[in-house]
């Protein structure tokens, strides 16, 4: 279990990647306790002064002008949790819920939400006990907060809803018992503080970012393998070419290919005097295309790091000024837009890989046996594996349509522009799975091509990449049941096994 002392507002991407991968034992830095207490005291002062403040003693959304009596304030907070827990669809994966809870704890502990330390510590206790609330994936439009998902998270604090523990669904009340907790009676502002926020959208988007990074590393490796297998030129990766254009991500992408391809290899040296003048774009333009994808990944990482440490509920409590302001930090447009850009990157990584695979099976282009198998005709080889890659690439084109431009007003037009960030980020999982499948097919094909070049060898780094695959999948000497080969190759990619083969400073969350 990953142990992390959380200083609110200082979560790093490497921390979040670890939390996505494994359970976490979270300890809250005591330095934040004073700010949390002052924020909660400010809410109590508002009530003592009989001031009318949204979300504390009013209704919500279009009911914001409805004053709530003091006797009903606790009921108001309980009611908002239960009424807003209206999500549908399959439950979030435990890794998603874990990220969501850490992000919520981090936001609340900043001390601008008017919530008691007791409530934050209860969330931490559930997290550390690996009692994960059952949260449906669908039902948020990514504005006014991820209300439905965060309400489902909060029901367990009340002893309501359901939780997942040791892989089994149990009642929220049973989940509290497992964690050694009693149901909490939420105070003024606390229900709204729990429900408002962008943490569901951000959790999905972070998972999309981490997947995109794994895909990027694997695609760089498979692309370099394909250059070798297809007897491609190293010249297009020359640093001088990329310096004169000037895009830093293109320069860095080209450097990553040079890191793998080195200056030469036995395979590379074997065709130095060939008559071929240029390679197809899928080989030659890899730094340009992958550099553009890297730009989107780095931009998304920057935005999501800020959002992971943000205070995004409403209203916000500024205790030092004795002021409470109703704003719109719950609007998840920044997440929606970077999720849309990650979708473009993920789709293009897959599209370029599919074209390289098409090149490898074409004997006229690659000078390898047709469909990468001996005794063609009797053996179909990689013919339909490439078709599978094409199908996945085509599906990604539809999924890459931007979600952030599709606002649909809600709450009787009070919430008249929303971000759709939750879907924008959630669909990245399907796209990542598709691209991992495309890359798996290319990885198999490129390693097959390397084998056909034997006894000539590739570079040390690419030999390692080849060996990692061959430890899982044997050479394709004749037709066999193909799907398990793709599954094993895809597992290598999605575990991030190829991340260590690219430069350590290439991808944001992989930097120490």
TrEMBL record:
<keyword id="KW-0963">Cytoplasm</keyword>
<keyword id="KW-0369">Histidine metabolism</keyword>
<comment type="similarity">
    <text>Belongs to the PAL/histidase family.</text>
</comment>
<dbReference type="Pfam" id="PF00221">
    <property type="entry name" value="Lyase_aromatic"/>
</dbReference>
<dbReference type="GO" id="GO:0004397">
    <property type="term" value="F:histidine ammonia-lyase activity"/>
</dbReference>
<dbReference type="InterPro" id="IPR008948">
    <property type="entry name" value="L-Aspartase-like"/>
</dbReference>
<dbReference type="GO" id="GO:0019557">
    <property type="term" value="P:L-histidine catabolic process to glutamate and formate"/>
</dbReference>
<keyword id="KW-0456">Lyase</keyword>
<feature type="cross-link" description="5-imidazolinone (Ala-Gly)">
    <location>
        <begin position="143"/>
        <end position="145"/>
    </location>
</feature>
<protein>
    <recommendedName>
        <fullName>Histidine ammonia-lyase</fullName>
        <ecNumber>4.3.1.3</ecNumber>
    </recommendedName>
</protein>
<feature type="modified residue" description="2,3-didehydroalanine (Ser)">
    <location>
        <position position="144"/>
    </location>
</feature>
<dbReference type="InterPro" id="IPR001106">
    <property type="entry name" value="Aromatic_Lyase"/>
</dbReference>
<dbReference type="GO" id="GO:0019556">
    <property type="term" value="P:L-histidine catabolic process to glutamate and formamide"/>
</dbReference>
<dbReference type="InterPro" id="IPR022313">
    <property type="entry name" value="Phe/His_NH3-lyase_AS"/>
</dbReference>
<dbReference type="GO" id="GO:0005737">
    <property type="term" value="C:cytoplasm"/>
</dbReference>
<comment type="pathway">
    <text>Amino-acid degradation; L-histidine degradation into L-glutamate; N-formimidoyl-L-glutamate from L-histidine: step 1/3.</text>
</comment>
<dbReference type="InterPro" id="IPR005921">
    <property type="entry name" value="HutH"/>
</dbReference>
<dbReference type="InterPro" id="IPR024083">
    <property type="entry name" value="Fumarase/histidase_N"/>
</dbReference>
């Amino acid at each position: 279990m990953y142990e992390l002392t959380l200083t609110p507002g200082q979560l790093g991407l490497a921390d979040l990647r670890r939390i996505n991968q494994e359970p976490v034992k979270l300890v809250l830095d005591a330095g934040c306790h004073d700010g949390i207490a002052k924020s909660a005291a400010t809410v109590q002062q508002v009530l003592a002064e009989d001031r009318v403040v949204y979300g504390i003693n009013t209704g919500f959304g279009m009911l914001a002008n409805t004053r709530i009596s003091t006797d009903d304030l606790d009921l108001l907070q309980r009611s908002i949790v239960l009424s807003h827990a209206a999500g549908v669809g399959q439950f979030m994966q435990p890794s998603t819920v874990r990220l969501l809870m850490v992000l919520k704890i981090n936001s609340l502990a900043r001390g601008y939400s008017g919530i008691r330390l007791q409530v934050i510590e209860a969330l931490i206790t559930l997290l550390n006990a690996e009692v994960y609330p059952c949260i449906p994936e669908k039902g948020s439009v990514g504005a006014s907060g991820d209300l439905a998902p965060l309400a489902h998270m909060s029901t367990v604090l009340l002893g309501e809803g359901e939780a997942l523990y040791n892989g089994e669904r149990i009642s929220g009340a049973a989940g509290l018992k497992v964690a050694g907790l009693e149901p909490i009676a939420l105070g003024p502002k606390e229900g709204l503080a729990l429900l408002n926020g962008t943490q569901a959208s951000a959790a999905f988007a972070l998972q999309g970012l981490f997947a995109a990074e794994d895909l990027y590393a694997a695609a760089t490796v498979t692309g370099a393998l394909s250059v070798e297998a297809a007897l491609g030129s190293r010249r297009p990766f020359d640093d001088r070419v990329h310096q004169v254009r000037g895009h830093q991500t293109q320069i860095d992408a080209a450097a990553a290919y040079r890191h793998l391809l080195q200056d030469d290899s036995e395979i590379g040296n074997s065709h130095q005097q060939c008559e071929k003048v240029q390679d197809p774009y899928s080989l030659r333009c890899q730094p340009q295309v992958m550099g553009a994808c890297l730009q989107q990944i780095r931009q998304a990482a920057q935005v999501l790091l800020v959002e992971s440490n943000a205070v995004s509920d409403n209203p916000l409590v500024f205790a030092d000024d004795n002021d409470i302001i109703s704003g719109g930090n719950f609007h998840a447009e920044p997440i929606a837009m970077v999720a849309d850009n990650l979708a473009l990157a993920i789709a293009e990584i897959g599209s370029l890989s599919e074209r390289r695979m098409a090149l490898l099976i074409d004997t006229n282009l690659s000078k390898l046996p047709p469909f990468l198998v001996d005794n063609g005709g009797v053996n179909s080889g990689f013919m339909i594996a490439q078709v599978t890659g094409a199908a996945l690439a085509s599906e990604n084109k539809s999924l890459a349509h931007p979600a952030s431009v599709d606002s649909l007003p809600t709450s009787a037009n009070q919430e008249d522009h929303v971000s759709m960030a939750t879907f924008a980020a959630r669909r990245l999982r399907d796209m990542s799975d598709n691209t991992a499948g495309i890359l798996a097919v290319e990885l198999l094909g490129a390693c097959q091509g390397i084998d056909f070049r034997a006894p000539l060898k590739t570079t040390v780094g690419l030999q390692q990449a080849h060996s990692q695959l061959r430890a899982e999948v044997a050479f394709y000497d004749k037709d066999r049941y193909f799907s398990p080969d793709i599954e094993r190759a895809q597992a290598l990619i999605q575990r991030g096994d190829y991340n260590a083969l690219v430069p350590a400073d290439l991808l944001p969350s992989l930097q120490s």
